[in-house]
Amino acid sequence: MNTEIQHDPLVLYGEAFESRFLLGTALYSSPDIMRDAIERSRCDIVTLGLRRQNPANRDGDTFWRHIEASGCRLLPNTAGCKSVKEAVTLAEMSREMFDTPWVKLEVIGDDYNLQPDPFGLVEAAAGLIKKGFKVLPYCTDDLILGQRLLDVGCEVLMPWGSPIGTGQGLLNRYNLRTLRERLPTVPLIVDAGLGAPSQAAEAMEMGFDGILLNTAVAKASEPPLMAEAFADAIDAGRKAYKAGLMQTRQTASPSTPTLGQPFWHTTS
Questions:
Q1: Which residues are marked as active site?
Q2: pLDDT per residue as tens digits for the range 240-255
């Protein structure tokens, strides 16, 4: 048995995680359903928008108890921020509140498709990294943007598959494959736009290192079951990538060729 495939952790900023599934905590109909979804997802990291609730004010005690009891690393995010100043300020608040330098950085540039602002994102990432943050930037699938984020010190990139909450899957496979091929050693996590486990499996088969999503699980009829389905798909996609997918062909090729093969005859 290949132990490399059996033990294949996701390494981010020098820290190893057994699961390659990062799950959001927004949009669930109740804290208990969120708890069950986290458990069934087998994830090690959960994301949280700082604006959602304020633990300092004792809001949502049940919600916070479930987050703490999960044992998952908390990854605060700057969701909803539209300027560098706003994103940096929110990140600093999250570090003080949650005692963690980890942050999912979002700087949104367009209200219609929630596309990241590439210029603001690089500026905010550079400033936060200088302040000691471990920045996981939510970005588009643009190679040059990815390179600029790496240049300022990011060690992880989180390109979108498609706009947040659309469920359209991997809209630009060329760009995503280019990112993977040109940045072979950088952890790449597909973040946003996935709506089905099959889409997550496809991303993992392409060689991406992990999947971050929220809406597809939280808005399912049975979120815990959908979380488990995504977890299984992510694991399957990773194993397929590690095992080596067959090359596609334009013509048929028999799986049981006869040329050059011995024939076995039986006598009655």
A1: 104
A2: 999 999 888 888 877 7
